[in-house]
Every structure is written in C-alpha cells, then in structure tokens.
Sequence to fold (576 residues):
Amino acid sequence: MAVIGIDLGTTNSLASVWRNGKIELIPNTFGEYLTPSVVSFGEHGEIFVGKVAKERLITAPSVSFAEFKRNMGTDYRYFVNGKYYTAEDLSSFVLRRLREDAESYIGEPVTEAVISVPAYFNDDKRCATKNAGRLAGLTVERLINEPSAVALKHHMGVEDAETFIIFDFGGGTLDVSLVDAFDNMVEIQAVSGDNYLGGKDFNELIAEEFYKENRLKKEALSKEEQGIVLKEAEALKRELTGQDEARRSVYVGSQEYTMGMTNQHLIHIGKELFMRMSLPVRRVINDSGMAAEEIDKVILVGGSSKMPVVEQYLKTLLAIPVVPDDSPDESIAAGVGIAAAIKERACDVKDMILADICPFSLGTEIYDGSFSPIIERNDTLPCSRTREYVTVEDYQREMSFPIYQGDSLIARENLLLGNMTVTGLAPQPKGMVGARVTFMYDINGILDIRIVSGDQSLHKVIMNKKMGLGEEELNDRLEELRRMTLSQAEDENVRYLMEKANRLYRECSPGVREYISAQVSRFRQIIAHEGNSRARREACVQLSVYLEAVERNKFDFDGFDESFFRDDREDEGDMR
Fold:
C-alpha cells in the first residue's frame, strides 16, 4: 500500500508520491494538480470538493466553505443543513478526495499519508490536522513543517553547502524558516510565521478599497454580491502579478462598477500587512544568531509569493538575492512526498536527513505566574531537556506543574497542554525540597514528561488533549462522515460547468446573460438525452470553450466576437 505526501493548503491542496526514483504530483479528476480547498454541500446530501465547490462560493455561499484551515484546532463551527462541522471535518473531505484521486492514479489502496502544516501551527492545530487525516481514512504518523518540506525539495541533489531562508507565503498563512543545508543534511535553524496572514488578506484589502471608492456599504450587499466582489478582487490581484496596473468591471445587481489598482497603491494601502510580513523574517535571523550577510538567498514559495510587491519588499529588507521558486504552488507537495519516501526508507532517499526544530517553547508555570521554558523554541528535534524546581513556601506539601506551549512571558497566555502534580512532599523549609522535570519531545509531536522528587516518580505522555477522541467516538464520527457521499468523479465536470455558468451569469451584464442562458439551455438538453455518449463529451468541451471566452471578454463585452456563438449553433445539428 502506498504512502503519499499531502500539502493541505488554505487555498489549494495537492498530493504526491515517490515512485521509480522520483517524485510525482498526483492529478485530480480534472487532470490538474491543484485542488481548491473548498467544500460545498449539495441539495441532495452530496458533498462537492474542489473546483465545483469553489464555483459554489458564489452560487451557493450559505452552504460552501473555504479557508477553514485558519480555524484548525479551534472551537469554531460551520453550520449547514442542520448540522455543525469543525474545520477538521471539512479538511477531512478535502483529504478524502485527495486520497481517492491518489488511489485512482497509483492503482492501489492508500492508507497512510505525511501531511504538511505551517511551521507555526501549535499543538492543537497540528493534532486537528492528524484528526482530519484519521477521519479521511488515513494513518498520519508524521507531520512536516511546510518550509522544511520546501527545503528538502530544494536541496535534493545539491552537493554544495548553502544557507537560505524559505519564505512561504500562501493563501492564508505565512511561514519563514532559516535553513542550513550541506551534503545529505537539511537542518532547520529557526522558524517563525503568522497563521493569519496570507494572500486572502490582500484580496480583502482590495475589496475594501473597492467599497470605499465606489461608496458602497458591504453590509448592504447580499452574500452572493459580496462573493462576486471578493472574487474580482482576487482576479485583480492576480493581474497585478504580470502588470503594474489592472482594472476590472464588477456587476453588483444590475449596475456596473470599476475596480482599479496599481502595485504602488497596493503597497500604500497594505502598509500594515507588509509590516506584519517583516516580523517573522527579522525573528528567524535574530533567533538563529546569524548575520544577514551569512545567508545566501531567500527562496519564495507559496502562491501569494508571486506578487511582485512581495518580492520587491523583501529585497528592501535584506541585501541578499530573493529568488522565486521554479514551482511555488507545488514545492511543498513535492517536499512532503520526499519526506514520505524518507519515512518509508525508500532506497533513493534513505540517506537524506531532515533535522527539524521545535517551533514553540515548552515549559511550566512558576510561583509568580511566569512561564519557565524547559525546551526552548528552535531546539533541534528530537530533544530532551531537564530543569530543577524547588518549593517556594515553608512546609509545602505539593508542587503543581501546568504544562504550556508558547512563548509568552505570562504562562497562562500560552497553550495549556496538561497538568501534573507531585503530592506528599516532606515538610521542609522553602527551597529544601525539589523536583527534576524532564521533557522529551520527538519529531511526531509527542511530549514525554518525567518528574522525580525524592523517591517519587511521575510519568505522563502528552500527545494532545484534543487527540483524546476515544476510539468509540472516533469510529462514530468516522462512520457518520463516511455516510456523506462525495460527488462522483464522472459527474464533476458537468456540475462544474453548470456552476461556472451560473457564477458567470451572476457576474456579467444583461447582454451577456442572454447568451449564457441560451448556451446552458442547449447544453442541458444534450446532457439529459445523450447519456454517456460522444455528443455529451463534445457538449462539455463546447460549453467549456464558450465559458472560457466569456471569462476572458466579460469585462469589455463591446468587443466580444458574437460569431463564436453563431458558429456553435451551426454545429448543433451534428451533435444531435
């Protein structure tokens, strides 16, 4: 049975597998590597994942969800069709679709995966990711930090020693890692990041500027109209990747508005986002103890790193080369596939070594409420550290050790993982009785704690309080989600075209809507009567081409070539 690597992204997800001595990206039903991380619930209980679901963000916004990765490991709930779903539930549907696509591509069952997570994901978020894998029918023993995966992919086959920063800027999160690589060793020196900063924030910034310039009140618009504005903002941002100025026409109701932006203006209104972007870069350099001139380059990965304003901003921060990765959308998935191969001891990569680090400090609370780290942030994994603590009151009979993860000076501002208490201490003056506390933390996120005081010894293994889904509870949840059917692959293209036509119909001017309506009506007739025939496949291709033309021309319809539609109609007789 194959073990695959999965990049579970905020915006898009993809999978990979190591075969025949190389990494292979796994295509989905549409023959594409990127599957949008979007889930939508259909009218008849079916679940759509990917491209179809993304279109339904506009056409069915109340039952469609995206960017839920940001809420992994939290108590946030999504309500739809009378039920509540967590971010890990929705993520499990994405993982399940990727697993099914992998099984179809590889030709054998897939029961295990290595999944990437942002380096700055805390314990709750990491374990929610593992739970999502279990709910998708996957064994997930290993998680790998996203920048670490990129570092593996980048250093594969490179003999020279190099020190570089991985700047991983995705749709919803930012990760920054400083890497020292030599021979077959990839050693992570420091990590930092922002779990709530990504391309999504620029989309929202552009949309807010649109509302402001056109004197529109966002709250006065329907969810569908807000979705259209946000989608156009994302499209405008993408256009600014290849040109310095972009303009879009946006139809809200029956009125046309203009959305315009230059890269310079984006920098102006995005000052706060850029300032947040600089903080993790400065932090990894400071944590590593290196000088900026010792770093060879900055490697840009993640879809949002394609923004030229991001590249230019980083060049102003550091006087070192800033290099876009050759495949920024796919690098993480490739690296995770390599990590899966290393885990399986594949002969081609078994000698590769990844030395990852602890992204957050682990420690306990002391008498004044302060946080006392035992394992420090950026300690190399696996690691073992010991500290001694003594009583602070005369004749104290017990010592309590709340276990926290984080880097706030105030212990209770960090993430509480558990609690251990030593009781029955000998009644002695303060400072005369002590306890040795040992933390052992491994690459799989398992924290082993031992406390020794006199002849007493306590032992506790903390995987995560939220991994505490009992087997019975897990099996019940797994069975419930399995009963929810993912849309069938053979129906996906037809449904995608219908959702795309519906979305374009909402976005376009009245003149274009008439053409779309006529094309969709003809398409429906063919689909209803032709079954799985050549005519059906040709109808799908023709509608797809037509909608692509509308997509390209919808913002300047005066120049639209109507002969395309007439040519289609002339061919109609051959298709019936």
The CA atoms of residues 27 and 33 lie 5 Å apart. The longest strand covers residues 185-194. The mean pLDDT is 86.
